[in-house]
């Protein structure tokens, strides 16, 4: 970076949630001035930055005015006004990831087309502009319908089992995707800086709980064969290079029962599937993101110990001022690290924090994670 | 802790320097509300807390008023108004470390008497109230004279070689100490919570540079025999128990050429000799301090890898707005972690940050530390 930046550089973060919060914990080491924009006046970052601005991330003027005196802008959520970012880029503000990358990733249809154009393996799909299109898709039932924009954490996704489900389908622009009969959901986080250096974190696995039908644990590193891991990491690197992204890119993938890898979705920022890097890897995803956007040498991503990450979700049936139960008890287990996100209010399944469980032994890490999961609760 | 504290608890930190800053980086994970008092309006913590108050740490009213609405107060510097803390304790505010511990440690004479009363090995000494006392001390020349109060980082310490040096001696209340012909300076950090649980970090060594006559590196863990390490750790534990301190205690010691250990000084807080725990140990000294003062189970202190810590000092001959040279270059070495302290202005030998160098191989960690030391500079 041309600018002498330790101490002077003004870094703006669009979004003031937990990802921004953990980014700030790391950015403190770099002496940068941090400005945060978030619509929630109680956002987790509100008290940890040089300037916190409460405002809409999707409003052109708000984003433009927030950014115009900054040196560098990054995001912790991709639902932001990209036109404002594009104008800021034209006026000389650095925006990493670049506005064109955010624009592409905001739209799941464009993501899919990008995969196709770049020979990146992904499930068969079709773009849908209205419910009428659903009558004659090329994709066989059952299939998945996803809204092209604004879906997250399972929202904006439906399974259609037969034409009888069409009345319940989304009417907005969407994609339909072949249902993948996967063996495992996997993810690779990759970083790229402006010099073009690219580095991946080791592949991780999501452990699914069939009873509650949810991803329960994230486990790092994977125990799949070296070949599969390498293939997943190569795909992530290729995407980062094809996009020429600057910053972090989380690549969520399916490992199919036949051993193929299909890319599911991208997130151009630190990601839930990389939280365990804080304790489990030589550098964390947050440190790596900062190194990438500051155009510094990328850090060592190697795994130090087995890590299991659990999201700490608001307990079902509780809404209001958050109360945490069991923190003291889980901290008596060695290798348990608690990260609370500073959210004042809980609601069912809201991400209130995460717990990372580290151990030299993979099975012991998983056993401890199960214990932790039974003990800790967020109520109101 | 009786109070349901995640989110509600108001934690006050007396002092807003780098130790407070690193404590906050860790405290973010616990959701506590942080209030900081520091006389410098540009203090490193100023932008990282719920409330920053600029004021004197040694003024009774300032400290009392700062603390009276808080739940828990801790320190990152021991030069604070202890009378105010004592009154706050009487009124029900928790103060950890306790005011009586801070009062004792503030006075090097009382520290020495405490060692003597509790059979803690330390060098021979004598309390001195005026220069006249120096004429007939029981300690043989050459000896060390230390001010009883307010010395730090080598300030307030003089070597007297013969009675001819008396005119240059300190006139204030002081101690004279036998000069210890030590083999190595060592340190152990110990934590104790209010339940009485006690845990030490592994013993560390200071590597002295005879050319510049300064401690150059801190190396963790030590390579001395198990017996010596255990002895040092037992001494640290005994002191924590004798003091009944709640919080962290850094115990600086001399290992003599005959293999004895003599306690030099105490610091009742996170300490420069524990910075390498951030990357080098399972929990950091900052996390451990918070666990101790929150009365949570103490964390696993075991060493993960060899660590060398270098203080990043303001270059001699430069004063003014700090400029950092070489950060990019040292970050290209794997296992190098930079911590800048957010200080706007540099001056010769001011602590501006620290670098931690981690490696599986001790010699390689030291080699890399030497490289880092040659490259990085803080100028103006």
Describe the structure.
Two copies of one chain form a homodimer. By secondary structure, chain A is α+β, with helices and mostly antiparallel strands. The first copy, chain A, has three domains: 10-95, Rossmann fold (3-Layer(aba) Sandwich), CATH 3.40.50; 124-178, Dna Ligase, domain 1 (2-Layer Sandwich); 182-379, D-amino Acid Aminotransferase, Chain A, domain 1. Helices cover 25% and strands 30% of the residues of chain A. Chain A has ten helices and 22 strands. In chain A, the strands form five sheets. In chain A, strands 10, 11, 12, 13, 14, 15, 16, 19 and 21 form a nine-stranded antiparallel β-sheet that branches. Chain A has a five-stranded parallel β-sheet with strand order 3-2-1-4-5, sandwiched between helices. In chain A, a hairpin with a 4-residue loop joins strand 12 and strand 13. The longest helix of chain A is centred in the middle third of the chain and has 18 residues, at 226-243. Chain A is globular and about 60 Å long. The mean pLDDT of chain A is 94. The interface between A and B is large, with 39 and 39 residues.
Provide a brief overview of the structure.
Chains A, B: Residues 112-294 form the ATP-grasp domain. The structure is a homodimer of 380-residue chains. With 380 residues, chain A is an alpha+beta fold.
Query: Mean of the pLDDT scores of chain A?
Result: 94
Q: Provide the number of structural domains of chain A.
A: 3
Describe the sheet with the most strands of chain A: 9 strands, antiparallel
Structural class of chain A: alpha+beta
Classify the oligomer. Answer: homodimer
Give the largest interface: A-B, 39 and 39 residues
Strand content of chain A: 25-35%
Let me know the CATH homologous superfamily of the largest domain in chain A: ATP-grasp fold, B domain
Query: Which outline of chain A best applies?
Result: globular
Rounded to an integer in angstroms, the radius of gyration calculated over CA atoms of chain A is 21 Å
User: For this structure, what is the CATH class of the largest domain in chain A?
Assistant: Alpha Beta
CATH structural fold name of the largest domain in chain A: D-amino Acid Aminotransferase, Chain A, domain 1
Report the span from N to C terminus of chain A.
46 Å
Count the E strands of chain A.
Answer: 22
